[in-house]
Design a protein that fits this description.
Elements lengths: L13 H34 L3 H29 L1 H19 L5 H18 L2 H11 L4 H30 L3 H20 L28 H12 L3 H16 L4 H11 L4 H26 L4 H24 L2 H13 L5 H12 L1 H33 L3 H17 L5 H8 L1
């Protein structure tokens, strides 16, 4: 390995290879989060479980997916990106592969809720934030947008595939597909991923100024994650970031990602068609999130978040009418909702780094993502309970839309003094 820290003038910077491997890892992991939405109905029908009962398993998965995030960020620092990514993929593959043999409710709680939830949490948005922060100084917002958009790309690829497989071969085919796909990524990560630019004799992409040597991180990763939480919790901006991301989770994968297929089925829309609608949303999200990353490098992220949450809230308030109206209404919903499905991530990552600094940004963002997944878990179970109680998902959609409008106003004070000083 060369000891030089300056890249050759015409060589592709290894940061782009690390970003590419991370993109593929997040894309495959997205298949694990797309699976519950397409098997919610057939799984419940086979075992005679209510929507609320099946939704509880999904909510445990989502909750652990989020709570693992800040500890995963500490694990990246302690053990390296590559080893943690490989461990995450193995957990997801084992959890879904073994679930095809499950026959009891406790099996699904352990495999889907704990094992897949924990593995997904180590290969999630926090991973993208850690890679973008560690490997990139220039183009960081764009890269974060692309890595976040990998979830949409995974949805675009996996949802129609999984829905067709479930329709033709039964629900067990979906987790089996995800298990094989995640297992196939393990050797790719082992061969091409690197933990840090210095491992290949480089500096972060776009890094200028004097060379600095980072002190190695040691000690208990869990203790470090909790210590950073204690420091961040004393600042108002942390709670505004966490609160807005709670709403983000409640209005995306917890609600739409888990229950839209079932809600559309209630309105007479076939599962495969709804999965195609979710894939269309993923296509627009791919464009919207990538554009959001580009915009986050250039414009005030607070105003971007205001627009994103406001648009999402209006879209959710419109959804009950769209489900009962002409097919064109669902198409309109898919476009507007899809454009900002996870477009909130790049500006949230930038605000987190601005407020808490580069060194702690990944761990603080991990705790913000934990709030996101707590919101998602509440919505995943709550929407199922609402459907069981009232026979319709409309109150859940309307309530989520109202929360988004509140969040749109709540993000405006975040880092206001900091950005005003920079602008001056």
């Amino acid at each position: 390995m060369s000891s030089s820290l300056a890249p050759g003038p015409r060589r592709l910077h290894y940061a782009w290879i690390a970003a590419g491997v991370t993109f593929l890892t997040l894309l495959v992991a997205a298949g694990s989060r797309a699976t519950p939405g397409v098997i919610l109905l057939p799984l419940g029908n086979e075992f005679q479980w209510s929507r609320a009962t099946v939704s509880f398993v999904v909510s445990i998965n989502i909750l652990l997916y989020g709570l693992i995030g800040p500890f995963a960020a500490a694990l990246y620092q302690r053990f390296g990106l590559r080893r943690v990514m490989m461990a995450a993929l193995v957990c997801i593959s084992l959890g879904y592969g073994l679930s095809t043999l499950a026959t009891r409710y406790g099996h699904f709680l352990l495999l889907w809720g704990v094992l897949v939830g924990g593995g997904s949490g180590m290969a999630a948005t926090v991973l993208g934030a850690a890679v973008a922060t560690r490997w990139f100084t220039a183009r960081r917002g764009l890269v974060m947008g692309l890595l976040t958009a990998s979830t949409a790309t995974g949805q675009l690829i996996f949802l129609p595939w999984l829905a067709s497989a479930v329709t033709e071969q039964g629900w067990r085919s979906a987790p089996l597909i995800v298990a094989v796909a995640t297992a196939a990524m393990v050797p790719v990560v082992g061969r091409w991923m690197r933990d840090h630019p210095r491992d290949v004799g480089l500096r972060a992409y776009g890094e200028t100024g004097p060379v600095t040597t980072e002190a190695p991180v040691s000690g208990n990763p869990a203790a470090r994650a909790l210590a950073v939480l204690g420091e961040a919790a004393g600042r108002r901006d942390f709670w505004l970031l966490a609160g807005s991301f709670f709403v983000c989770g409640a209005s995306t994968n917890g609600l739409i990602g888990t229950h839209l297929v079932a809600a559309a089925f209630d309105c007479g829309i076939p599962e495969v068609r709804t999965a195609g609608l979710l894939a269309l949303m993923g296509l627009f999200d791919l464009a919207g999130t990538t554009a959001s990353g580009w915009l986050s490098d250039r414009y005030n992220p607070r105003y971007l978040l205001f627009c994103y949450y406001g648009l999402r809230g209006l879209s959710l308030l419109f959804l009950p009418s769209a489900l009962l109206g002409p097919a064109a209404g669902l198409g309109v919903f898919a476009v507007f909702y899809g454009l900002d499905w996870i477009a909130t991530v790049p500006p949230t990552v930038r605000l987190t780094a601005d407020v808490f600094g580069r060194e702690r940004a990944a761990i603080v963002f991990g705790w913000v993502v934990a709030a996101h997944q707590v919101g998602a878990a509440c919505a995943a179970y709550g929407a199922g309970a609402v459907r069981t109680l009232f026979g319709t998902y409309s109150p859940a959609f309307i309530g989520a839309g109202a929360l988004c409008l509140i969040a749109a106003v709540g993000v405006l004070p975040i880092a206001r003094g900091l950005h005003s000083a920079r602008a001056a």
